[in-house]
Amino acid sequence: MIYLILARYLCGFNDTQTLQILAANEAAQKDYGYTLTEFLSSTVKVLWPKYDITSMMQMVKQKVKPGLHNKASVRHIKKDGTIIHVDIESKPLPSWGNNTRIVTALDITLSKILNDLESHEKKVLEMNSTADVSLKEVLTYYVKGIESLFPKMQCTIMQVKNNRIYSWVPSSLPKRYTDKIEGLQIGINAGSCGTAAFLKKTIIVSNISIDPRWDGYKELALSCDLLACWSQPIINSENEVMATFAIYYKETKEAK
Fold first, then answer.
1. pLDDT tens per residue across span 16-34
2. Which residue from 4, 5, 109, 214 has the fewest beta carbons nearer than 10 Å?
3. Distances (CA, A) of 66 to 17, 18, 94
């Protein structure tokens, strides 16, 4: 059986019994990051996140039947580790042999993330309107949800008290990093969060290693593999900064 490999509009072929990839179009090569040679020496499992392999094998056995078309929404993984969501459609391709199949895949990552984000925000609003749910619980749920939707992000919410920042919710950031910045004095060059709180404006640091606002803290951040940080102040009705919401990345980022 053949699987066509498509990223966006992905095209390729593979054998259904071995799952060997037999062909891949230029869009697949470009978007997934594999050369044609790499594709042809791989099975379709190379496109499956490791935690999905068992369920994907079960789906192939249950849904892929000789002579029949089938559709599914699944996750794929690119060569660089990026997870995408795709709608796949599988059709028999007799011209390539009785056990071949062509599979097209349409990248629906953006629309899925937007739908999931909308659902997440609705849930946060529901929690916030529930009397027995604390603000800390709401914020924790929000942060963890954002990190789930965007796995390359590490988020934190810092509370601002007496011109210092303190962790408000549990964070996925390294403990030795959060311990060091606990109680940090806000100021003009106090990292992303300290500066955002001081200036009352969004601070975007695309490369911590060269940004002067991180001069006093860059060694700590870089030792924790934190290379970029964007921070947004949260300002109350009295124009006071009550907290900052920050996103950290383990790679440098271009400001947009």
1. 567 888 888 888 888 899 9
2. 109
3. 12, 15, 10
Q: Which residue has the higher pLDDT, 22 or 252?
A: 252
Q: Given this model, what pLDDT does residue 90 score?
A: 83
Distance CA 140, CA 159 (A): 13
Q: Is the pLDDT of residue 4 over 50?
A: no
Task: Report the C-alpha gap between 74 and 105 in whole angstroms.
Answer: 9
Helices 135-149 and 109-128 pack at an angle, to 10 degrees, of 170
Token digits of residue 219: 């060694």
Beta sheet of 100-107, edge-to-edge order = 21-24, 12-15, 100-107, 83-92, 70-77
d(CA 194, CA 229): 12
- Counting other chains too, the contacts that 191-194 makes at CB distance below 8 Å and 24 or more residues apart are 191/216, 191/217, 191/221, 191/229, 191/231, 192/229, 192/230, 192/231, 192/246, 193/156, 193/158, 193/165, 193/229, 193/231, 193/244, 193/246, 194/165
Distance between CA atoms of residues 136 and 199, nearest Å: 25
Phi, psi of 112 (to 5 degrees): -65, -45
